[in-house]
Amino acid sequence: MAWLIYGANGYTGELIAREAVRRGERPVLAGRSPEKIEPLARELGLESRIFSVDAPDLSGVALVLHCAGPFSRTSEPMVRACLAAKAHYLDITGEIAVFESVLARDAAAKNAGVALLPGVGFDVVPTDCLAALLHEQLPDATELQLAFHAPRAGLSRGTMKTVLEGIGDGGAIRRDGRIVRVPTAYDVREIPFSSGPRTAMTIPWGDVATAFHTTGIPNIRVYRSTSPKTIRRMRMMRPLLPLANWRPIARYLDRRANQISGPNAEQRAQNRMYLWGRVANARGEEKTMTLTVSEGYAFTVESALLAVQRVLAAPRAGAFTPARYFGPRFVFSVPGTTTP
Length: 340
Fold this sequence. Notes:
Blueprint: E1 3-6, H1 11-22, E2 28-31, H2 34-44, E3 48-50, E4 63-66, H3 71-85, E5 88-91, H4 96-103, H5 106-112, E6 115-117, H6 124-137, E7 143-149, H7 157-166, E8 171-175, E9 178-182, E10 188-193, E11 196-202, H8 207-215, E12 219-225, H9 228-236, H10 247-257, H11 265-270, E13 272-280, E14 286-294, H12 296-313, E15 318-319, H13 322-326
Parallel strand pairs: 1-2, 1-4, 2-3, 4-5, 5-6, 6-15, 7-12
Antiparallel strand pairs: 7-13, 8-9, 10-11, 11-12, 13-14
Helix pairs in contact: 1-12, 3-4, 4-8, 6-8, 7-10
């Protein structure tokens, strides 16, 4: 069955396209820039399609792997097009609002007979599976904390644009089942990662949305390891961060993001990501667990291709988080995943 990568010219989209071809897959490569898409398609011997996300050409396509962020701008029209074309929709977002929007369309997906499956990359796949595994151990948990440590991590241009787009909005946690906005670096704690303890701060990461839909746990916080110096600086800058949403500053930051190239092949091969999770119930009982996975973009390539294969082989209709579609142990199917 034909499937399509939209945003194949982006950092992650191109990595996925090249690895797909190496494995004998023949995805259609699509995007809005012919000068970027067509040379890559010719090099890889693949079909190309040029269209805007607002007017997709999904004829003959059974599945779309959407890789063109920021997804807050691009996801909704692509989801709408996939529902109309009866094509499965997968993406690699990490944006809270996108998860909430896509997962709210469960009934529409079932009516169309397709899967809507956002977040099939890092960090959502490993942390979503980690949340589900912990929930299995403590089914009456009322609190969930998830954290990751990314030593020497680099960001792609698209990821940086997504970060910058949301920086002026502060942080987010889930409290009593509702997503609430909190100040940047709202909570700071030491996390006992398997690689050693690290100071970490709360971040408005996608798991604030997905982990609730996966587990039903009403209180969720997500942390990223951050140096105490950086945390102090970010807290001092809180009053200024909303200025990032001012159009002249937003344009300047966008231009700066365009200069980023993303991790090189050596960094993707050598770096690792360390994850930690904790659940607790009202009686004070708790369970913790750690995972180690490959570098974030390398993980995304593997998990996204695995997700495409499994959805095409065994499709289900509805809107899903990764752990709800594939099960909590899906993360162990991705090469490089270990747990102590």
